[in-house]
Amino acid sequence: SIYELALVLREQGEFARSEELYTICVDFHRNIGDQEGMHSALLGLGDIARDKGDVAGVMQYSELCLEFYRELGVQWAIGFALHNLAYGCYLDDNLQQASNLITDSVALFRQLRDSGGLAEVLVTYGHILRNQKNLDSAIDALLEALQLARVVGPRLIIAATLEAIASVQVYK
Question: 105-124 burial, b for 16+ CB within 10 Å, e for fewer?
């Protein structure tokens, strides 16, 4: 319940409270020896770091989670850890590494047929492509994200996609 509340608060932009709750989750799951629960909360802390533009935080949390989830083979979590790492590289202006990571994440979500996850990572892919000045491909990725998000949501992804499309148009 605490994890879910942290997730909702993060989605609402309540980063401080969400971070506090995720930290409680990390400590709780560590104390009971639940590594998967602990890493889920760490992935949430990585999401907060990503949303706040904290490159060091997103890289730290996401690298820990990627290693753990690769050992377990939890594909959706690998996809989101790759996504966060790609976004961290994007924020750090390491566009080649960001592109490598995000294409792996996109491929994984396509393989999983996870439309919601794919929509989210395609938005990041669009930002990376825009900054690489590959504007036509950026629009293609973002239009696919918009189409997926309109069907499966959440509305937050629709808004982020529309904002990203506008940023590509401004770039032209």
Answer: bbebbeeeebbebbbbbbbb
